[in-house]
Sequence to fold (227 residues):
Amino acid sequence: QKEVEQNSGPLSVPEGAIASLNCTYSDRVSQSFFWYRQYSGKSPELIMSIYSNGDKEDGRFTAQLNKASQYVSLLIRDSQPSDSATYLCAVNKAGNNRKLIWGLGTSLAVNP
Amino acid sequence: GAVVSQHPSRVICKSGTSVKIECRSLDFQATTMFWYRQFPKQSLMLMATSNEGSKATYEQGVEKDKFLINHASLTLSTLTVTSAHPEDSSFYICSARGVGISPLHFGNGTRLTVT
Fold:
């Protein structure tokens, strides 16, 4: 079992719809969770960070964390073609040397 | 805030030469910096972790004598690809974290082409 798992996709949604991206992790004592967006040929950029159970909203993005189920998700409301990218889930384990454990990413395509 | 500057953005060099890539945190102190490599259509691969003032920790399979990392200050880390070969051609990305469990911030990456 991979430490951080994501569906590779591609996830295809129509413009204006809600895109739902999911991530599960194996280490129950993980402390912090991050979603990054990476456009083709570019470096990742931070979208959201979440540290406690529940929802965290920032504009059109909502991160949801459920530590009991070891699950973190990212919802993108009113999806735009410019949201088309690979979304990377990253987890910081407790006691780790501060490096992140990365999922392989989910490719999202928003169709006009 | 949390800007990481990486230079150069693109470099082409001849086989056998060395290339230095700089990574600077512009508005925060980066206690830890990470160097990644990414081949086309593949995921990020962590090469090494560097903490200011100490030796870098390399991931398994990464040659420390080939990829020299220096993290001499809280705002600057460098990666030198020594005796580069065509198979070293890749997208190299640095990232930096401040104190605690702060997020990782990435530089814009360096596309290295070795001819």
About this structure: The mean pLDDT of chain A is 93.
